[in-house]
Specification:
about 55% strand, mainly beta, four-stranded antiparallel sheet
Length: about 120
């Protein structure tokens, strides 16, 4: 059973930075794509950033130029570096991993951007 564990969330002031981590219980080589999603209560979960097994990335327009997704295969971990955070970035951030036969989710980590 695949487990994804997010960490790194918290309270940050507008303009600040956070780095989220997603640690997988096994090798991430088997995943075709991994990504970060976020959700605000009452809204649908939305894709923030994704990274494929060969390192191709994509971002939501709202975070382009501010967020960077990366992966460390040796540590079985995917990161989301978030800079220039804005109050609208406040949400629960979820790690996602997909491969043939399954889609997996972490339990989420809360990011609050507020002064």
């Amino acid at each position: 059973q695949v487990q994804l564990v997010e960490s790194g969330g918290g309270l940050v002031q507008p303009g600040g930075s956070l780095r989220l981590s997603c640690a997988a219980s096994g090798s991430i080589f088997s995943f075709n794509v991994m990504g970060w999603y976020r959700q605000v209560p009452g809204n649908e979960r939305e894709l923030v950033a994704g990274i494929t097994s060969i390192g191709s990335t994509n971002y939501a327009d709202s975070v382009k130029g501010r967020f960077t997704i990366s992966r460390d295969n040796a540590k079985n971990t995917v990161y989301l570096q978030m800079n220039s955070l804005e109050p609208v970035d406040t949400a629960v951030y979820y790690c996602n991993a997909e491969r043939r036969g399954g889609i997996f989710w972490g339990k989420g980590t809360l990011v609050t951007v507020s002064s």
